[in-house]
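Workshop exercise sheet. Pairs work together: one partner reads the sequence aloud, the other fills in the structure field after running the prediction. Swap roles for the next sheet.
Pair: D.N. / O.F.
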Amino acid sequence: MDIDTRRKKQKAFITELLERKIRLHAQQIYDKRGQAEGLALEDWVQAESEVLGKSILAPLYRRTRAAGTVSTESEAEGSQFDKGGDPSLSEVGT
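Structure field:
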């Protein structure tokens, strides 16, 4: 495997891990609010802000997301938050 391919895979993996952390934190926010629906975007933005605020990897995540590079593995898996949380959030990541 060449170095460029390895770097791309590492970036995708890091982005996927950060997305999972954000998704789980958004689920916690949703649960903490009593699972009131209709605030999925606010939950996601708050979770993203809190998770990325603590991470030195935030610039990489933002660049990857801005470029439209999304891990197909995480999309194929779905998410706990999409399946069990606020149903309107399933549109946020797309």
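Discussion prompt: The two ends are 30 Å apart (CA to CA). What would you look at next?
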